[in-house]
Amino acid sequence: MYTDWIFHNSHDIFYRSPFGSVTCNQEVLLKIEVLKPVDKVVLRLWIEDNEEELEMQLLENQENRRIYEKKIKAPSKPLQLWYFFIIYVDGKKYYYGNLTNYGGIGVTQEWEPLSYQITVYKEGADTPHWFRESVMYQIFIDRFFNGNEDQKITNKKENKYEYHYPAWEEAVKPYRINEKTGEIQGYDIYGGNLLGIIKKLPYLKELGINILYLNPIFEAPSNHKYDTADYKKIDPMFGDNETFKTLCLKAQEIGMNIILDGVFSHTGSDSIYFNKEGTYDSLGAFQSEESPYFPWYSFQNQRICNEYHCWWGIDTLPNINEMEPSYRDFIIHADNSVIKYWLKMGAKGWRLDVADELPDEFIKEIRGAMKAIDSESVLIGEVWEDASRKASYQKLREYFLGEELDSVMNYPFREIMLGFFTGQRNAYETSLALLSISENYPIHNFYANMNLIGSHDVPRILTVLGDAPQEEFLSQEEVANYKLTPSQRNLASKRLKLFALIQMTFPGVPCIYYGDEAGLAGYKDPLNRGPYPWGKEDQDILSWYQKIISIRNKYDVFKTGVWSPLNIDKDVFGYLRIIKAGRDVFNQSKDNNLAVLIVNRSMNSDMEITLDMGTHVSDCSLYNVLEENSRFDVKDGFLSLKLNPLEGKLLLKNII
């Protein structure tokens, strides 16, 4: 039985103050509204395994409207706190709790509901301000650019795999798979290298990039390098350690920083540590339990080295025991540990591959080692869900409690906005889902979110936005050869421009997957890893990216201004970004600004809208920074405008 005579909204500071996450020992005021007489109202709290019921006090009683409140103090320990309400009426109990796990307005029912979440994080926790104000670019090195003058591939590989070296302009082909074992038996290598990145730094600078996130660069037999062979050696196909040092120095000279990919949950089987193929002179764990690396791995029978635990059952990726002391010393604690070595070489941070498979203590130790070397270094985790409530191996993770990650790959942002543009959720549902992340993440983590549209693990964004058939309904040949029709590509391009506009103006750190700005398409790995089309870029998309990145970099309001969603229409998504009184959300001194972002996803319908600007701005003029000489006037607190199909407007005003 659902009723509507009880009301609480966790997104409204009248009912929950302050909004969102809180620090340890901070007070939180919770209110609930009841529209008929009741016997009592109880707040039920969960703090770890402890359950507590607290009677709420009647604050206001006017005719049929009653407001109950309870002030609680957050625990002194960082954790997730959970709550819902119990209302007693004439011997019956009613419950009010979370409706969708997104927070906001809840639901009344006669059985226990979902709980609301409050993230309680460590006092003084923060993220580097330089990172929050940057634009990131992800590079899959083999496919970005070959910097050799003769374009020859450096140090071609020879081992058990079949290697194919296609011309740069050749399309990527599916993996060659052994039909009997299901294993990959060959890799295509195009020849991109670190020298190529160095030579393209001017392009990246002109694009407006501040951070380069590099997929793995350490020695490994594959083209993707997630099967690490030597953590302290650049793969010879990419260059050497000195080349990496040069890259860092040249990037720093033009205001860019380098983030490395740390693959620490597993190594390659063909590595100096495991040495299954006998490639290396040293004694590997596969060869003998006398190997110094033997304790790093999990063997099903400690005396039978060829029976070992693998990452997701892939026998070329033997799992690591991360809490093994000698491994932790090697990766984290030793004076010349992997973490410290590459930071000293010039890296500014790490992205942790499969962070949910790394123990919390391991991540905390990595953070401690990084911050001791460089307090402004950044630690990012690969997390695909809401990182504040992520559970793995029956344990609620501690990523954002103040002692682990600065940032995560914000796949929820991608999923939420894709749902909007492809019609799977309306604008109201989109705003609610984004508000949930804003509510659950500590503010410094929310503004440090790695907001991605594409990555090496998902299909290219143009393919998805072009309404291409789902991959599972196509044959391998059809997947490999699929091309968007001109009308599909036109639709995808228009949608991508709007998606990227939101990405550049929403709180967080925008991350561009190499080639998305040039119009690359393709289904999932390996077809999403095509070579960058130098000289054949989609100039329309590329110029759009240059324009909107320039706008983001120019105006502080898009980096650290307050974010507030606008409820307009099911097809029209929008929000405000505001810096008031010269102070942003981090109390930094910034230029006063107000910006309005509005996007119409409809492919066919114009939208005439009128926005109540409320207290945000008095009568004034707003300017569409996407179009010259485009002005809109706010009259009597209202803003009226028209949006064409698949059009967005970005209106800006400098507040006096």
Topology:
Layout: E1 6-7, E2 16-17, E3 22-23, E4 27-34, E5 40-47, E6 50-55, E7 57-62, E8 65-73, E9 79-89, E10 92-97, E11 107-109, E12 116-121, H1 129-132, E13 136-139, E14 162-164, E15 176-177, E16 184-188, H2 194-199, H3 201-207, E17 211-214, E18 218-219, E19 230-234, H4 241-253, E20 257-262, E21 299-301, E22 304-308, E23 310-311, E24 314-318, H5 325-333, H6 338-344, E25 349-352, H7 360-373, E26 378-381, E27 391-392, E28 395-396, E29 407-408, H8 411-421, H9 427-440, H10 443-446, E30 450-452, H11 461-465, H12 476-481, H13 486-505, E31 509-513, H14 539-554, H15 557-560, E32 562-569, E33 572-579, E34 593-600, E35 607-612, E36 620-624, E37 631-635, E38 638-643, E39 647-653
Parallel strand pairs: 3-12, 13-17, 13-31, 14-16, 17-20, 20-25, 25-26, 26-29, 30-31
Antiparallel strand pairs: 1-4, 2-4, 4-8, 5-6, 5-9, 7-8, 9-10, 9-12, 10-11, 15-16, 18-19, 21-22, 23-24, 27-28, 32-33, 33-34, 34-39, 35-38, 36-37, 36-39, 37-38
Helix pairs in contact: 5-7, 6-7, 8-9, 13-14
Report on the architecture of this protein.
This protein is an alpha+beta fold. Among the domains are: 116 residues, Immunoglobulin-like (Sandwich); 49 residues, no CATH class; 93 residues, Immunoglobulin-like. Helix content is 21%, strand content 29%. The protein is built from 15 helices and 39 strands. An eight-stranded parallel beta sheet has the order 29-26-25-20-17-13-31-30. The chain has an eight-stranded antiparallel beta sheet with strand order 32-33-34-39-36-37-38-35. Strands 3, 5, 6, 9, 10, 11 and 12 form a seven-stranded mixed beta sheet that branches. Helix 5 packs parallel to helix 7, helix 8 packs antiparallel against helix 9 and helix 13 packs parallel to helix 14. The longest helix is centred in the C-terminal third of the chain and has 20 residues. It starts with 5 loop residues before the first strand and ends with a strand. The mean pLDDT is 94.
